[in-house]
Amino acid sequence: MPTLDELRNRINLRLEESFVGISEQVSDLAPADLVELLNQLNLIEAATVLTMLPVSRAVELIDLPTMSRRSAILEKLDPGRTARIIEEISADERTDVVQQMGVSERRRILAKVSQEVKAELEHLLQYEEHTAGGIMTTELMRLDPEWTVGEALQHIREVAREKESIYACFVMERETGHLLGSVSLRDLVMGELEDPITAVMRHKPVTVNALDDQETVAKKIAKYDLLAVPVLDEEGTVLGIVTVDDVIDVFIEEQTEDILRMAAVEPGALDRPYFDNPIFRVVRKRIGWLLFLFVAGTLTSKVLHSFEDELKAVVALSFFVPLLIGTGGNAGAQTVMTVIRSLSLGEIGLRHAWRVVLREALTGLLVGIMISLVAFAQAFWITHDLLLALTIAATICTICLWSTTVGAIIPILANSVGVDPALLSAPLISTLVDATGLVIYLTIAKIVLVQI
């Protein structure tokens, strides 16, 4: 059996000729390996390989969220084949795939699918992509409140193949579709067959609204350790469910966005595989923050210019500028990361602001005192100037205290006014601390070193 690299090379070489001999080898790959191979091919190659596979195998692959560019690949296939694949994949993945297609391609596909699937897609596509409605599936396990436990189990056995998840079941009114309760498969199996299902169900299950943000949904599922959470409309009717596997995807997506924003990169810059991102698109996603940070960085130059005479008087002051502002930026970045993480986990909020600020300020002070001892020894060893060494030590301690305090305040304030704290990324904090740290440094130097 050839390796994935060998298969990829053969596909690259034979693209203009024939795939004879490759089709069988590709078909024998495990789904995870086949997805990995398709992710490494360009769109035309991936679409060609997908065309060789039976529809059932193509459905299995497209149903996996680990497969990248699903929508773009399906757009390259014959509309009829794409429609067949769309009809067979699970409802939530189906919506996600169609949602990412171009408007014209979406219309072309919707014209080919069955009326039932079309109506379902049009209903789900009305919700924003990053809401509970946008990530939910309609393939939930509905149970009748008049059934016994035995009747419920019999129904589950009959329809299990058609449902995405059977482990979380929901008891609903026949007429209105209102949610009455939830019951796990474990509870049903452990219950007596003659018991009414209402005797084993949870009467007040955790729910979410269709318009709730996906991150809110993910936090609820994690907090209450749920396998699935029902999605309701304003009238309390069940529209679908969000399952725990969808939540894992949400957490990965949200954490990726936060990490990118902390690095001053717009999240959209990495929503495609590396080589599929046009350079100009990458530049457009990066340039905004870089320009902003560059302009903000001119504050540092302005501060140095303002203290030009002092720096000329004691040239040794300039030796320690990179060390001081670098330490302040690092201390501030550590605090920002810690506070943003705690905010995202719901451990702290605006009501905890003063406690957080005092805690981080104390941390910064203690860290600053310890680093200042090392800084004093280093500065005295280099310059043999006691007053200059004292200046460096005092500055390090003050800058650590200042940067950790600022790093604690800004994310909390941003979160309280509805701004993503990750937008106030570590580079921005570093730039701010650089300028203010220089003011602190040169002001202390002016006080301690009376000769300037």
Keywords:
452 residues; mainly alpha; CBS-domain; 3 domains; 3-stranded mixed β-sheet; 21 helices; 62% helix; elongated
Draw up the topology in text.
Layout: H1 4-14, H2 22-27, H3 31-40, H4 43-52, H5 55-62, H6 70-75, H7 79-88, H8 91-99, H9 103-110, H10 115-124, H11 132-135, E1 141-143, H12 149-159, E2 168-172, E3 179-184, H13 185-190, E4 208-209, H14 214-224, E5 228-232, E6 238-243, H15 244-262, H16 279-306, H17 308-313, H18 321-344, H19 353-383, H20 386-416, H21 426-448
Parallel strand pairs: 1-2, 4-5
Antiparallel strand pairs: 2-3, 5-6
Helix pairs in contact: 1-3, 3-4, 5-7, 14-15, 16-21, 18-20, 18-21, 19-20, 20-21
What does this molecule look like?
By secondary structure, the protein is mainly α. The protein folds into 3 domains: about 5-125, MgtE N-terminal domain-like (MgtE N-terminal fold, Alpha Horseshoe); about 140-250, CBS-domain; about 295-450, Orthogonal Bundle (Tetracycline Repressor, domain 2), CATH 1.10.357. It is about 60% helix and about 5% strand. The protein has helices spanning about 5-15, 20-25, 30-40, 45-50, 55-60, 70-75, 80-90, 90-100, 105-110, 115-125, 130-135, 150-160, 185-190, 215-225, 245-260, 280-305, 310-315, 320-345, 355-385, 385-415, 425-450; strands at about 140-145, 170, 180-185, 210, 230, 240-245. A 3-stranded mixed sheet has the order 1-2-3. A 3-stranded mixed sheet has the order 4-5-6. α14 (about 215-225) links the parallel β4 and β5 (about 230). α16 (about 280-305) packs parallel to α21 (about 425-450), α18 (about 320-345) packs parallel to α20 and α18 (about 320-345) crosses α21. The model has no long low-confidence stretch (mean pLDDT about 80).
